[in-house]
Amino acid sequence: MAAKILIVTGDAAESLEVLYPYQRLREEGYDVHVAAPARKKLRFVVHDFEPGFDTYTEKPGYTWPADLAFSEVEPGQYAALVIPGGRAPEYLRNDPELRKILKSFFDSDKPVAQICHGPLLTAAIGGLSGRTVTAYPALELDMQASGATFRDAEVVVDGTLVSARAWPDHSGWMREFLTVLRAKAPAT
């Protein structure tokens, strides 16, 4: 039986940051589930960089069904966790069910991959204190306020925590996450 990986997300998550790890981990042989505040069709967004804008732009992206509501997740059934970015983490960090899930993964030292604004979730449970991470560069002060050392790098590995800045860093992010994952929780 394949090891299970949990992706936690919601509406306004960055499309690529959900779907790339979903497909890459399935390709590797893992059983991947998407959890959100409720079982429903999620509406993702596309963040892109355009000349003349001081920050990224946002457009409607793909839709995708959530397999589980956060209240249905049994963290002990999962070998690892993926936390995509986008705007979803801004409101998801207030969800008490999600905070319980996150805490369980960190308390068990299971592999966690986070990207872009995803570290806002791990910061909300105190999971970044004393760690070295990267995130979307605009979050540098948030990461420092959470007790983390911020590095502006494609990918940062701190034990079982693997972080990346944004979707342009996917290949390095998944390469390093799979290295951690294969050591801690092989696909089969």
From TrEMBL:
<feature type="domain" description="DJ-1/PfpI">
    <location>
        <begin position="4"/>
        <end position="178"/>
    </location>
</feature>
<protein>
    <submittedName>
        <fullName>DJ-1/PfpI family protein</fullName>
    </submittedName>
</protein>
<dbReference type="Pfam" id="PF01965">
    <property type="entry name" value="DJ-1_PfpI"/>
</dbReference>
<dbReference type="InterPro" id="IPR002818">
    <property type="entry name" value="DJ-1/PfpI"/>
</dbReference>
<dbReference type="InterPro" id="IPR029062">
    <property type="entry name" value="Class_I_gatase-like"/>
</dbReference>
<dbReference type="InterPro" id="IPR006286">
    <property type="entry name" value="C56_PfpI-like"/>
</dbReference>
<comment type="similarity">
    <text>Belongs to the peptidase C56 family.</text>
</comment>
